[in-house]
């Protein structure tokens, strides 16, 4: 379902949407509408409250489960060749849940992430201009086909979802990548930029970062292709049109 | 906020935003069991349910700002996350065989299954009464979509009803449940400890 849905069409689907009962093709269209419609957001929240009351009571989780979760909080990203830690500018976040104050383990994760940022900012680069142009062409010429491709990727059990987050945790973006390296940006909370600026997606391969897509001033379902042993994806903010060599800190970064 | 047991859910999420692990532990203590029960019910697999729970709570840890207390309770947020991820897994190739095996074990008498699910899955007598008061067609559509992890189109095939009718039944059933629950004194807010 590549076309935009009208408000009445979406409202008919809100019950099924709230229960995760839409087909993938419909999900994207409804999701797009709901996120910008206060009335629909409110109705979905109501439906989910009701659904929550139908849940099957309480089942005591296995005692070891909390230990696994707590241990995962201490995990650090996979080893990268790290540069010395440098200061990183804040992501300009606006959330209201308070100021970050990390525990020791998470602090290590933050240091590693910041170090990776430093590495990305100063290492060699390689740009895939042809690929970028092809991506932009596909996006403009075949929006319906692109939507179908994204839906197919989301439904593909072999696809990986890669979460990228800012070092302060305020900003995030998600990509889905198929086994053949074809990927799509599927969601983000990065704020829209002015027309003179763009987001740019980079793949970290070894000690190089490779441009895999110019995402535009507002991140939408953008296709990209990545090859080789990519260890991380990162998004930077650049001048419109993208850059060959980025000297800016990534806005978000995520291990692959 | 020294005594987390007295803190509201919203305050706990604020504390999680400040990287307080004990706040996440308290959220887990309050709502982990409900989320685990839902995941286990959907997936019929304790190991997979644990994986889902891990993912949901790690997501809350990493991106607490996704929870908006003005749009609902933390419990419903966590359950919606749990449901969404469980359904993703349920529909994936990985779990298809397990699901087929489970369905093969279940009764082929559909109506009986629906009744059993309603009886087994609702959390209180009042909720049971409200759910039982739903028109059968609405109740079946909701049950199959929510607990079966089926899309409304799949539900339409199972119930031999038009797709448009089924999506309308789901929505009208949820609205009716909300109204009836409110009249029965069942608020959408949950005890937090």
SSE run of chain B: HHHHHHHHHH
Strand order of the largest sheet of chain A: 1-6-5-8-9
Main sheet attributes: strand count, strand direction, barrel closure of chain B: none
Instruction: Please state the average pLDDT score of chain A.
Output: 73
Q: Kindly state the mean pLDDT of chain B as a whole number?
A: 81
Examine the secondary-structure arrangement and name the CATH architecture of the largest domain in chain B.
Orthogonal Bundle
Domains of chain B, number: 2
Sketch the topology of chain A as an H/E string, one letter per element. Answer: HHHHHEHHEEEEEEEE
- Beta content of chain A comes to 15-25%
Approximate shape of chain A? globular
H/I helix tally of chain A: 7
The number of domains of chain A is 3
From the alpha carbons, calculate the radius of gyration of chain A and give it in angstroms. Answer: 20 Å
CATH class group of the largest domain in chain B = Mainly Alpha
Describe this structure in a few short sentences.
Chain A has a five-stranded mixed beta sheet with strand order 1-6-5-8-9.
Describe this structure as you would to a colleague.
The complex is a heterodimer of chains A (256) and B (193). Chain A folds into three domains: 47 residues, no CATH class; 44 residues, no CATH class; 131 residues, no CATH class. Chain A starts with 6 loop residues before the first helix and ends with a strand. About 26% of the residues of chain A have low confidence. Chain A has 256 residues and is of the alpha+beta class. In chain A, strands 1-6-5-8-9 form a five-stranded mixed sheet. In chain A, strands 2-3-4-7 form a four-stranded antiparallel sheet. Chain B contains ten helices and no strands. The C terminus of chain B is likely disordered. Chain B has 193 residues and is mainly α. Chain B has two domains: 87 residues, RNA polymerase sigma factor, region 2, helix turn helix motif (Rna Polymerase Sigma Factor, Chain: A, Orthogonal Bundle), CATH 1.10.1740; 77 residues, Orthogonal Bundle (Arc Repressor Mutant, subunit A), CATH 1.10.10.10. Chain B starts with 8 loop residues before the first helix and ends in a 10-residue tail after the last helix. Chains A and B meet through helix 1, helix 3 and helix 4 of A and helix 1, helix 2, helix 3, helix 4 and helix 8 of B.
């Amino acid at each position: 379902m590549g076309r935009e849905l009208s408000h009445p069409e979406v409202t008919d689907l809100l019950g099924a949407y709230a229960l995760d009962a839409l087909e993938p093709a419909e999900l994207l269209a409804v999701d797009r509408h709901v996120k910008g419609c206060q009335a629909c957001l409110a109705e979905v929240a109501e439906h989910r409250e009701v659904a929550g009351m139908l849940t099957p009571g309480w089942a005591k989780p296995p005692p070891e489960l909390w230990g696994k979760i707590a241990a995962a909080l201490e995990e650090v990203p996979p080893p990268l060749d790290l540069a010395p830690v440098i200061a990183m500018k804040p992501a300009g976040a606006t959330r209201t849940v308070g100021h970050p104050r990390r525990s020791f383990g998470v602090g290590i994760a933050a240091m590693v992430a910041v170090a990776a940022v430093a590495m990305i900012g100063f290492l060699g680069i390689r740009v895939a201009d042809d690929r970028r142009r092809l991506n932009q062409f596909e996006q403009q010429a075949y929006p319906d086909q692109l939507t179908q491709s994204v839906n197919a990727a989301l439904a593909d059990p072999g696809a990986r979802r890669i979460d990228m987050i800012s070092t302060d945790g305020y900003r995030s973006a998600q990509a889905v990548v198929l086994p053949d390296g074809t990927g799509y940006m599927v969601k983000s909370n990065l704020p829209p930029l002015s027309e003179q600026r763009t987001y740019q997606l980079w793949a970290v391969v070894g000690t190089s970062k490779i441009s895999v897509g110019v995402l535009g001033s507002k991140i939408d379902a953008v296709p990209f292709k990545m090859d080789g042993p990519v260890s991380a994806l990162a998004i930077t903010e650049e001048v419109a049109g993208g850059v060959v060599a980025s000297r800016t800190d990534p806005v978000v970064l995520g291990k692959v | 906020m020294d005594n987390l047991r007295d803190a509201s859910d919203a305050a706990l999420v604020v504390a999680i935003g400040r990287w307080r692990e004990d706040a996440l532990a308290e959220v887990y203590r309050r709502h982990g069991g409900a989320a685990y029960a839902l995941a286990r019910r959907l997936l019929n697999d304790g190991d997979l349910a644990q994986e889902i729970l891990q993912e949901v709570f790690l997501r809350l840890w990493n991106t607490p700002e996704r929870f908006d207390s003005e749009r609902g309770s933390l419990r419903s947020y966590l359950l919606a996350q749990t449901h969404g991820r469980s359904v993703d897994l349920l529909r994936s190739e990985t779990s298809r065989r397990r699901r087929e095996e489970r369905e093969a074990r279940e009764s082929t008498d559909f109506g009986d299954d629906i009744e059993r699910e309603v009886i087994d899955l609702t959390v209180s007598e009042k909720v049971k009464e409200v759910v039982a008061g739903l028109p059968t067609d609405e109740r079946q559509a909701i049950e199959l979509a929510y607990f079966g992890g089926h899309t409304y189109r799949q539900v339409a095939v199972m119930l031999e009803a038009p797709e448009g009718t089924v999506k309308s039944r789901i929505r009208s059933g949820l609205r009716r449940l909300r109204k009836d629950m409110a009249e029965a004194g069942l608020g959408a807010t949950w005890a937090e400890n």
